[in-house]
Amino acid sequence: MLRLQNVVKTYGGKSAVTALAGIDLTVTGGEMVAIMGPSGSGKSTLLNLLGGLDVPTSGSILVAGTDLADKGEKERSMFRRTTISYIFQAYHLMPTLKVSQNVALPLHLAGESSAEVSRRVAQALKDVGLEGRSSHLPDELSGGERQRVAIARALVTGAPLLLADEPTGNLDTARGEEILNLLRAIHRERGTTIAMVTHDHHAASACDRLIRLRDGRVEGDGPVAGGGR
């Protein structure tokens, strides 16, 4: 699913900063991996590159066989609509749209029919246990419920790759545990490839594999002790 070869990302300016200094990495389809490292290690940069939100200075990034490093912004955007979905720490829900409308957004962007949108939104909300909240606005929901809406929005496209950026970072322990259990269920039942950036060792333990970054390089890569829960 993911293959990175000698990926370098340098940000210019008066003094260039190298965020990634030669990353070689392979993630097979159906894996659930955690990406950890101290601040400035390159975690966010790596996630942006995996999602095609940015391109490397050099090297190749193959996602489902497509080299995103060779694609323009429009091509990467079209690719994301069918192949990559996101969960963000801050949810990024539209406050004036109802839950069902927030979940439907990526389907409308993809040009799906109204009937198909309704069917898939209903199923996604059922999958995250929010079928009774479809007509609520985001500010009428708890933090855990908002993150479930964000997960439903990520699921609704059926994309085979899910990227999660600190998905439990804004939640208390109990709500965070609910989200981790939900991600594990998605991984198990759908076979979705999940790459999750986190600072939380407990969140990482929900994954089967842990990739550690430091100073823009892979410092460690192996199974999570007791992972997968």
Which short descriptors sum up this protein?
229 residues, alpha/beta, Rossmann fold, six-stranded mixed sheet, four-stranded antiparallel sheet, 27% strand
Overview of the structural elements:
The chain is globular and about 50 Å long. It contains seven helices and ten strands. Helix 3 (99-109) packs parallel to helix 5, helix 4 packs across helix 5 and helix 5 runs parallel beside helix 6 (173-190). The strands form two sheets. A six-stranded mixed β-sheet has the order 6-7-8-3-9-10, with helices on both faces. A four-stranded antiparallel β-sheet has the order 2-1-4-5, covered by helices on one side. By secondary structure, it is an alpha/beta fold. Strand 4 and strand 5 form a beta hairpin. The protein has helices at 43-50, 73-83, 99-109, 114-127, 143-155, 173-190, 201-204; strands spanning 2-11, 17-27, 32-36, 58-63, 66-67, 84-88, 161-165, 193-197, 209-214, 217-223. The protein has one domain: Rossmann fold (3-Layer(aba) Sandwich).
